[in-house]
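SpoVT-AbrB domain-containing protein, pasting as requested.
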Amino acid sequence: MDNAVIGKVSQKGQIVIPAAIRKALGLQKGTEVSFEVKNNEIRIKKLPTALDWADLVKQIPVENIEIDEHGHYDPKAHPDFHDWMVNG
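Structure tokens follow.
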């Protein structure tokens, strides 16, 4: 969504976020947002919820690595781990 939308500040200092923007960002009643002021502009960001973090963590790959008493592992048995360790 690259279109600018104009709103007004109410007597109580409130601004209504247009429905199209709320829908695009998934903003609902109770959604937390952060405000940042920089160079005479306000940036509003949706804060991640616990569910957002849980979904993100689910995407992290898991590999059980067999490490010996000297801290060594078999890179052939664990090629993904080896590539991750070498390439970062």
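Note for the archive: The CA atoms of residues 3 and 43 lie 15 Å apart.
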